[in-house]
Amino acid sequence: MIDSILDQMTLEEQVSLLSGADFWTTVPVERLGVPKIKVTDGPNGARGAGSLVAGVKATCFPVGIALGATWNPDLVGQMGAALARQAKSKGAAVLLAPTVNIHRSGLNGRNFECYSEDPMLTAELAVAYIAGVQREGIAATIKHFAGNESEIERQTMSSDIDERTLREIYLPPFEQAVRRAGLMAVMSSYNRLNGTYTSEHHWLLTKVLREEWGFDGIVMSDWFGSHSTEETINAGLDLEMPGPARDRGEKLVAAVREGKVEAATVRAAARRMLLLLERVGAFENKPDLTERAIDLPEDRALIRRLGAEGAVLLKNDGILPLAKTSLDRIAVIGPNAASARVMGGGSAQIAAHYTVSPLDGIRAALSNANSISHAVGCRHNRLIDVFKGKITVEYFKGRGCEGQPLHVETVDKGEFFWFELPSNDLDPADFSARMTMQFVPEESGDHVFGMINAGLARLFVDGALTVDGHDGWTRGENYFGTANDEQRGALALEAERAYEIAVEYEPSIASGAGINLIAVRFGVEKPLGEADIEAAVETARNADVALLFVGRDGEWDTEGLDLPDMRLPGRQEELIERVAAANANTVVVLQTGGPVEMPWLGKVRALLQIWYPGQELGNAVADVLFGDVEPGGRLPQTFPKALADNSAISDDPAIYPGKDGHVRYAEGVFVGYRHHDARAVEPLFPFGFGLGYTRFSWGEPRLSAGEMGPEGITVSVDLTNIGERAGSELVQLYVRSPKTKVERPDKELRAFAKLSLQPGETGTAVMKILPRDLAYFDVEASAFRAEAGDYQLVVAANAADIRFIIDLPSPSGYVLPPSHQATSLIR
Q1: Is 222 a catalytic residue?
Q2: 118, 160, 222, 645: which one is catalytic?
Q3: Using an 8 Å Cβ cutoff, are 225 and 190 in contact?
Q4: Cα 723 to Cα 397: distance, rounded to the nearest angstrom
Q5: What residues make up the domain containing 766?
Q6: What is the pTM assigned to this prediction?
Q7: What does the similarity note say (predicted)?
Q8: Residue range 704-756, pLDDT digits in tens
């Protein structure tokens, strides 16, 4: 059928398939029955075509690093299937997920969205996620291909990565998704790879992806990440997003007419687009693009389970789990206690159906809610708290908010990120909007107003200009580099008096370079100070236990920005120290998208890392704290003691954050635990680490063969739960290689198994390694090579806790061309 349709298409119609129609849909060819389909973000929820901060409500699942911490592909696969059903509720056929870039450092603002520092763990979870999505008839889109491990100048920066490092660290998750999951779509990254934009990278998109790995799906650009006409199509980029066409359309038709692009190249790309439509059933069932909010009880239960399964208990000095019946007074303290920090920032944001804060979850878990006292202590927000309350929005034709409004609506949050305007009569390049609201302070004193805007805006309080985001507007880092830095203004306000707030906004060409977004965010807060920390300390002093919820949020862990350091922002470290001094039973619950430095660690009795676990946050953390379930998580990323201990951090800015448009991956394959092993740098918490509420005994490992063969080797380890509670244990299998002509890591993760066992129960962890698991990439031979010598299989609980070492001789060695499957052994 596809070829029949192609044969009837004009060149112009074929070309039309290769650009989006708008921000979220493809172009139909109605005369031939080719429908349009919708795509949607993202990795932790299907948002639909609404804005990043509004739109139809969606189910909020845990972020990528929280999934990485589960080490549970089966559960991640269930989430993939649930996300696919959510995508259908938004009328979408393509989900723009998963994100599988590697945790190169602790500072990447988008680490929260990715699974791990290790390519094997990342690949296993990605394969499960994709299989779950696609078995429901929705196409998964793996991203970002490739070398997108930082947000700094990401749209132009060149990630300079040698081929061995690419093949061993950064490409395997993409490769395994193609080979094992039947992947339907790939998204190229913004950055350049070794000097060439990935959307124009023929070696990457055609030589490796299609010819070596056999990929037959589509490659789409990241949004506004396509920069040329003939270069992208000839490299293998099928779909330019978003639409309408910028470098395709008439430009591509002309390139074919002029002989710069072969007609067969366009036909092949159009064929892949039609194949995608066929695979998602778009020809059989005309897509319904209607968006609906579906909040399912089974999704709620899955999110709650995932939250506990990814929670990593990093320290426990005998205080957890807490006994509900023996605690008369519980202090719940910190900036993340009463606020539900359920996701990171950027394109992964959604408008969640609901959120459960830790404070709400703890109250729901305890029969006597009166035993709970609460204090904030300090703030950590990067931006002024967004305004929440009734806001009337008037939209006008033209600039200046003049005349009668064309459209009026009411919203409840002071953040607007318009992908489309509420009326087709409004021109995105020539409109204005006025937002009006009342603000009634709870306390008298100085208040700070803040605003960021991609476009031009002014904020007025009782008619007086208070924040100017119009005159002298300059580009900053917000909204993916299209908005200004936050502008602020302070006023002394009186408690219980109503103040009239107005914000006037209009777009500006100056708000973007290539990407012209229209967005504004405004807020107000009363700064916290010493008295607030003292109140938190007093609250802790009068309690049996102090539960301290600290960390970051989606303003810090976000697309578009890297972190400035690995310290907790604001006065949180001081808050921890002072609360711990006031209450010896202090438990810290940490929410971040990666590691932080912990100078306070020795002063608290327990530490639980819970990431951003989705809308059931509070219920999941209460389940773990009170022992209803075990903390099932293990670290997917090494937590170093200090920023300087990261593999990508050095005195050379060319290595990170980059210099003169290039960032050099000088550490090569020595990322994460590979770096810590090779350089003898002791981490704060090793890769794979995590405590539980029970104990296990390990039996001697058993091997299916004494030497590597074409079908690989199976390693089995018996585990017995010798404690009094149900729990889970993770077994990791590393390979240690003999000395070779290239420097290799001390050990590399090649398999893992996680078992959940009842008290007294015994189970068997079964892991399989394949011929390629012994190999490194030999650049000269352009192949994976396992040299002859004595290998070792390292059976471990985490990267620093080795339980068994098994000798595995390989007397002859072998070579595996990259185009062969990992099981195809060539002597």
Answers
A1: yes
A2: 222
A3: yes
A4: 69
A5: 694-816
A6: 0.95
A7: Belongs to the glycosyl hydrolase 3 family.
A8: 998 898 899 999 999 999 999 999 999 999 999 998 899 999 999 999 999 99
